Amino acid sequence: MTTADQPEDIAALAKGGRTNVAGFVLRLGARIPFLFIAGHMYGAALVGRFAIAVVVVEFAALIATLGLKRGLAQALSSTDRPHNHVVFDALALALIASLIASAMLFAFPQAMYPNSAIVGLDRFFPLIILAPALSDVSLAALAYRHNVKASVTARAVIEPWTLSIFAFLFSFFTHKDGLVLAYVASMVAALTASIVPLIRSYGVPHGWSPQVGVLWQMTRANTPLAGADALEWGSRNVDRLILGTLFAPSVVGIYYMAQQVASLPQKLKTSFDPILGPVVTQSLARGDLAAIARQVRQVAFWIIAAQLALAITASIPREGVMATIGPQFVGGAAPMVFLLFAEVFASTGAVSESALVYMARHRNLLISMTMLALQIALSFALILALRTAGYGVTTQAAGAPIALMLVVLLTSFIKAGVLGRILGVSVSPMRWPLIWAACAGALVGGAFALLPPAWRWAQVSIGVAATLAAYLFVIWRYAFGPDDRALFSKMPSAEEATLPNEGGFIR
After folding, report:
1. Is pLDDT at 125 greater than 80 in this prediction?
2. pTM to 2 decimals?
3. Cα distances (angstroms) measured from residue 133 to each of 58, 126, 401
């Protein structure tokens, strides 16, 4: 319900955000069992091998969407054709691109396993590419109609829980291929959970047939968006590829687990994508630039406030956090801290990009390309410098997240500045109370960190809660205004957050 002090666009963002915050909690609860199972039942070497293969497959799946994750909303908002025809054009396009990508990786499986032999089911792994690609396009279509429940259900419940359950089951039957088969099962389940509500919402496209000319025009129009998606994804995953070329799979496995823990806060940003894209495109269609600036500032602040809380609370008992995954993963504690703060620094740039991809596609693409090249160069430079200085392999591997943290901070400054100049108003989400809250949390957590080893249990069980409480008190008391509190004014129940809407819409 909107008021004079809470514009409709912020109300829509808050409504979608409430559903997605609940979905994030569900995703967090589902991802933790997978980390525990993978760490304790498969070990660092198999996890590392799986991590490299998955990063290649996911990149191929992202390319196969051809920018439709964000471009579909604009296509739907500017067409006179039946919407279900446009959606099925997009699905056909993603299917064709997926089959091409699958064939290429099937022919050259060494791209997925650069530092190990191709055996067993390895060559057939790329066949799963079509599942995440079609699922992403389906969820983008549902997001256009503000149905974020389908995304929460598919991505926050079905996908991670299927992954965890099947990783556990396959560990008893096929230890080597267990993680890969569990991943395949989770992607198929997520695709099913995406297609069913899509058909309910849009219906069967009677009279539709693929049109080559339309598909080609859609491909050309979305090329900058596809490039932006690929570069954003690359900035978060190229470090894993770099480590895969320089270190043994066990080192990559340790880093991957640290990355998985640190990427949980990043899901907060991606959870807002389904609702932020349509809201921004609708404001752009009206020519309301002030509304776009307000939307970017608001969402970026929400994300930073939440991510900073998670970064501070997880960084203090960092070794204990990684030890819960498995004793051999404690070496990933330092990379985890750098990755957590990289997520905080990246938020402003990532949210600004949600508008830049529609308003300055080519400039945004050029910035992303330059920053990715800088990240790759800086990663190699830091890793090789640490290696030359005689540090161990775990310390050397920390060069990659340090490079990421520095580059995403620079990227956020640049993209926020460019968007601010286009809109004629600043889009910076920073507020001084964020700094005050971070200091309050760090002081409380630091006090618990000084406890002797015998009291380590208190550092984790009591210290984390006390740190979070201090941080949240300052944020709520001094940083949150009416629009911010609207995000928590009516939190959805677990049922509302996980069950797809019967009609495929969120009203």
Report:
1. yes
2. 0.73
3. 9, 12, 27
